[in-house]
Amino acid sequence: MAQIVVDRVRHLYRPPRGKPVLALEDVSLEVREREFLALLGPSGCGKSTLLYLIGGFLPVESGGIAVDGKPVAAPGPDRGIVFQHFALFPWKTVRGNILYGLERQGMPSAERQKRAQQFIDLVGLTGFEDSYPSHLSGGMKQRAALARTLAFDPKILLMDEPFGALDAQTRHLMQTELLGIWQRTPKTVIFVTHDVQEAVYLADRVAVMSARPGRIKTIVDIKVDKTDPGVFKAKAFVDKVDEIWNLVKEEAIKAQVEHAS
Amino acid sequence: MTAGLMKMLLRYSPLLILAIGWELVSRLGLVSSDALPSLSAVAAAWIDLVRDGDLVSNGLSSLYRGGAGLALAIVIGGVLGILMARWKPVNVIFGPIVEIFYPVPKTALIPITVIWLGLGDGSKILLIFLGCMIPVTIGAFNGARSAEQALIWSARSMGADRIRILWDVVVPSALPELLNGIRTALALAFILLVASELITAQNGFGYLIGSLGDNGNYDAMYAVVLTVALLGFAADRLYQLLMHEMLIWRH
Amino acid sequence: MAALDLAPPQLPTVRALHAALRVSARVASVVALLVAWELLARSGLLTPYQLPRLSTVLAHIWSDAITGDLPFNTAVTIGRAMLGFAIAASGGVALGVAMSRIPLARWFFDPLVSIGFPMPKIAFLPVIILWLGVYNVSKLTMIVFDSIFPVIAATIIAIQGVERELIWSARNMGAGERELLWQIVLPAALPQIMTGLQVALPLALIVAVLTEMLMGGYGLGAAMMTASRFANSVGVFAGIVEIAVVGYALVKAMALIRRRLLIWHQEAAEPTA
After folding, report:
1. Would you say residue B73 has pLDDT above 60?
2. Under 8 Å CB-to-CB from C210, ≥6 apart: which residues?
3. I need a labelling partner for C121 at 20 to 30 A (CA). Which of A62, A75, B98, C140 fits?
4. For chain C, what is the domain count?
């Protein structure tokens, strides 16, 4: 039994001005427990929207989404989300941000402090616990956001292009760290990205989405040895990237045409 | 056309509800008719005032004073602000004066203008001129300062002299902030006008409100108060349209 | 913008030097203006009635300070302004929150706020006096009526501007509706609400002085009006100086409070203007 079942989901985007746009059409997907799934597709294909639907932040137009058999109705701490632009509470310190989720869960104070420190250390922000987000670099902010979500121990991790706002070097570092963290504390991860290399490096399976209105085009299994330090140059890796890139390219071109019209 | 009209009606319908509520409250005698005359009585008084010519003649006195003061403030304040932005010496002399008078409540200038020019039109025009000059100067200054250096350099390289640059590059760049400053000045002009006329005047809206109140003619007093309030609102709205027209090349 | 990691932080001494230069430039211009005033008054171009000497005005202020008139009137005016401001601030934020979250409240109050904003509301003072009499409560009502508008407008904009992802993150962690409002939305909206409050406070002072001028009683505005009626130009100039100083002090106090409360805000990462 898959942990997350997305069943023929349809979603309409209603802008404050203008006509509604069909963002997702007939999307079906199953995510197994503890697997790392990448959602890949061109801009505007609705991959973030699908993530928000699974997270319970947006309502489903028709069809259904179930987690562990129960339909998704609202956001909850079982599905932790990490956003591209960090969404840290700017008036709280790093520690304060992490403590917030633990406070919501009613954890006793001493235990909260200990757990928060544990995750601050895990993401490498020791020494910056009492800094405010406005004083941190992009990479540090993302680490804080990650620590904040991991701290309340969600079964499922929803990541919306989390490294998209970072520079190339930081992005690479964060990818490796994320993989390390995931291997140590396995969770189900749904990772939205438009970067094919990132998807192949991180994921067990890659779901390629079509241009708008989005549907799942193909799902590709990734069998690559991630422990190899030169993995980005390995033949298996490069071939996989090519294979998936060709799938995405068609959709990217379609998306461009639609943008122009 | 009708969709837009419907939307506007819906947006302003709470005012209609309030108006009906007002009429009902006074008709039902819930409040003393002295303190709150019915809306229909106020409307009737308004018509009388217009017919007698009181409203129009006093209105014109007020508008003349306000208009003159504001016009002077716009011209002199605008020029001063732009010069301050582009000529160091002007800034050195006038900068501190503007900065110091910025936080002074302009209404506090009322007694001083009376000391200088007495109780007539002159003091009120001076009051509005001095008070409104501050936001206009600041708007012109900030606007002129924001004129992109690159634009100025290319104008200069095309052989434009200082005056031309001012006219062709600096003024258009300064326009948005300058126009915003004028908008503030417009609202301020109304306030200073009403305030100074409520204190001492022989004609004008403020004078009319005061004398009607003193005579217990509350229907008419309400009528004039609402007229002034709505004029202030209408002036702002019209000015916004004007601003939009002038800045249309920006959008 | 947050400071780049790689940019060298300004040495504390350099930053202090810059701040000291800015302050002394301001002080220098004020001093220059005051000197110009005194010289102009002494020059004989204007009569002592039209422009009394700064020294005379200062002496007047000093004697008022000693007799206790000045502290009393200042306290009355500031007290009035602060009370009106407090009511306008709490009422304005509450109304702004209501208008942001309850569509019916939005629909009902929106035309009132948008029409009321540019109106010369001082025109309503005679109506307020008609209802509430020639007492302090009328002055207070006028102050609240004037100052509440910028607070409402700022609150609405602030709440609408709260990032969707902040709210979603909080929901994600299990926050309920009430917790969302007080723990997330209001703190996130605080910077912009504070800006509205920084507009409302000087406005409250202005209206306090104005109502005192129009209605008499106690306070700096009333005192200045009395001086005017007795053709006491020294008293009038003294009044302006006193009001200007009070206004300046209030604005500075507000800026200080803002800096303390919003120490976490983006602006705090940059040197202050």
Report:
1. yes
2. B105, B107, B195, C122, C221
3. B98
4. 1
